Amino acid sequence: MLLEFRKLHTQTPLKCPPSCEDSPTHEMTHLLGGAAGRWWKYLCQPTIATLAAVTIVLTLFLSSVFVNQQAAMTSVMEKLTSPLKDCGNCAVTRTQCTKGGELLPKGIIVGTSDLQMRTLAVEDEDMVMKITPKNLLAMAVGINQKEGVDQIVQKVLDFNFTIMLFHYDGITDQWNDLPWYNQSIHIVALHQTKWWYAKRFMHPDIVEQYNYIFLWDEDLGVKNFNASRYVQIMEEDGMEISQPALDPASMDIHHGITLRRPKNRSHKRMYKARGLTLCTEESNGPPCTGWVEVMAPVFSRAAWRCTWHMIQNDLVHGWGLDFKIGYCSQGIRSEKVGVIDDEYVLHKGIPSLGGPHNNRVRRRSGAEMKAFLQRWRNAVKADPDWIDPYKTSNESSRGYHTR
Ligand SMILES: *[C@@H]1O[C@H](CO)[C@@H](O)[C@H](O)[C@H]1NC(C)=O
Ligand SMILES: *[C@@H]1O[C@H](CO)[C@@H](O)[C@H](O)[C@H]1NC(C)=O
Ligand SMILES: *[C@@H]1O[C@H](CO)[C@@H](O)[C@H](O)[C@H]1NC(C)=O
Ligand SMILES: *[C@@H]1O[C@H](CO)[C@@H](O)[C@H](O)[C@H]1NC(C)=O
Ligand SMILES: *[C@@H]1O[C@H](CO)[C@@H](O)[C@H](O)[C@H]1NC(C)=O
Question: What is 135-382's CATH topology?
């Protein structure tokens, strides 16, 4: 009896299918035309077994429409089936494929979670899901910035945001006179940065419910910011990653592209005719286009899922991420990443975690940026299958973003 159980127990674990989150790649869309989306959806239905997926691909392969594209199809097939062979890198944990859940009946597996608070009494789950906020505002905060933080929260409160505060100074009790305090999530870990917290407490499977994720610094003036309109513009202008433009009165404007253009509603590139780095219509990467800074980024769900994976556990200041963030833009970065001018903020430039050790912090930040970019280069070298969509950078930007 026990032996039988052992045999059963050592059966090969379930293999993860490709992510159903991921839409088909551009290459596949191109190859399969309009059929791609439909097939993809079909493949992603939870009831379809992985075996069926392979069969469908085979049928597709044999169908006369694609006879002329045998070579191309082979590569598509490889794409669809390879995750079945090897699930080591499977980053997806939807209900039907959860690493660690292989021993359970599928129907019991809950692969994602949420930040919704529950009442202790009876509640209607459908109702809870209905009132669950669709956006998340996450900030690392200290009590010294209480007033400014409250102003930021006030701007999003009517718009059904979940508020998640990371208290890097350990003080939470002095916030509890604010009316939104009890409905918010408070996390304490002393002297940790926004990116440290985000990597640990904002796993994509946990924040899955949100359409947009605001990961902001605490020292932003929001007098001219309307969250509802911001999200509306981000949607209408087709952005997956954005930031509010910076008021010219801001401290430390490091990058021209973030500066507010009063005549525009939003912009996605800047032009620069002089200097070492030139920005023209042809430039296809930072700092000319495809760029937001790490101080006030806003991510779509899909962009955050990607960005989370890019954050390094030990590089806590997030410097250097902005160079590569465009790779998470779910499309061409010069089109999907932008700066919103109509709703803009003032960067007050208050060193928060830095405190008296500001120089040491600055040194570490710079070193982290170098380390991150070096890791990126190493990772690219070590992964010949990965294709850099922005490899051809035009002369004008002098390879700035590949440095
Ligand atoms: C916010 O949620 C409440 C229900 O909790 C709903 O009545 C209201 O319309 C929502 N507001 C917005 C702007 O979505
Ligand atoms: C939050 O909840 C605590 C405990 O129930 C209560 O004492 C406090 O008054 C509440 N604060 C607000 C602002 O509602
Ligand atoms: C914010 O923008 C929305 C439109 O998206 C508008 O209805 C609302 O009145 C604005 N709020 C303020 C305070 O201006
Ligand atoms: C920004 O505004 C200027 C002047 O109104 C206009 O010429 C330009 O096309 C706008 N750019 C964008 C990206 O909207
Ligand atoms: C580089 O610039 C040329 C024109 O100068 C343009 O045709 C080409 O599309 C650009 N390449 C990229 C990758 O942006």
Answer: Spore Coat Polysaccharide Biosynthesis Protein SpsA; Chain A (3.90.550)
